[in-house]
Amino acid sequence: xxxxSITKQYSRSVALKELSFEFKQGxxxxxxxxxxxxxxxxxxxIAQTIQIFNGSVEGNxxxxxxxxxxxxxxxKTGLAHLSYFSKIYGNKFKISEYEELLKSLQxxxxxxxxxxxxxxxxxxxxxxxxxxxxxxxxxxxxxPTNSMDIETSLEVLQxxxxxxxxWNVGVLISSHKLEDIETICDRILFLEKGTILEEQQFSxxxxxxxxxxxxxxADLATFIDHQELGxxxxxxxxxxxxxxxxxxxxxxxxxxxxxxxxxxxxxxxEKKTLRNIYMNKVRGEYHDI
Length: 289
Ligand SMILES: Nc1ncnc2c1ncn2[C@@H]1O[C@H](COP(=O)(O)OP(=O)(O)OP(=O)(O)O)[C@@H](O)[C@H]1O
Known about the structure:
Order of helices and strands: EEEHEEHHHEHEHEEEHEEHEH
Number of domains: 2
GO molecular function, one term: ATP hydrolysis activity
Bound molecules: adenosine-5'-triphosphate
Family: Belongs to the ABC transporter superfamily.
InterPro entries: AAA+_ATPase, ABC_transporter-like_ATP-bd, ABC_transporter-like_CS, ABC_transporter_ATP-binding, P-loop_NTPase
Shape: elongated
Protein name: ABC transporter, ATP-binding protein
CATH topology of the largest domain: Rossmann fold
């Protein structure tokens, strides 16, 4: 799917500004950003529930979605919902196709219960299954786990990832729970004020953010000239410090410093997590050294 220079203006505010990106079937893309960053607006445009905007979206003819609260009928059972929404899509609901998913989400045994007896988390899970009913090529899920406890949301997301791989569905998912997003996403987009501020890819290898403090500027300069440990995020000639993003383990870093004959006066390392990248990017804390 190609999202091509989208701008969305509401009467009082610009929600999206010339935003572009591409995502593929089978890929899981996370969307994070503060309140009002434009996440829901972007998802509604992809799901075609907002149709007036500038720019274009290509390849979004088959999109399932769960945006805001799932629209459910309290007096109908879970199964009645699945049949009803399948019918809307022109299909007959075949429970055998969804049995594995429903069981893994712990919904299978409560399908004959009325939805008013469901917890909020169960309603969200049912909403996720409904979004997948039409065999879509893509689904967009706006905070699908916000009513779930930590354990449930991790379980649900793992199942979603499994289904996305099995059915080759592209998933765009937003959440304020950064740990959730980090667990399942191949790629994460940071949205702020209607534009993509940063894109992060999470590899299977551990990544670290190193902060090194040198005794003098000459040592810092030598290090910068020779280092191939990773990407320099920030360096300061005032404090003789540097921040680097790397996959190198500490022992490797120390070996390298030994080879250069440089001694540090301070060294800290933290694992690169979505939370610290988000804090760094959105709050500008990369520049706190
Ligand atoms: N129907 C609307 N009418 C007018 N302005 C709107 C409307 N929907 C959203 N906005 C504005 O557009 C901007 C983006 O809102 P949006 O809901 O897309 O952000 P969001 O990232 O999903 O936020 P949240 O995390 O709070 O759900 C905000 O400034 C919001 O006030």
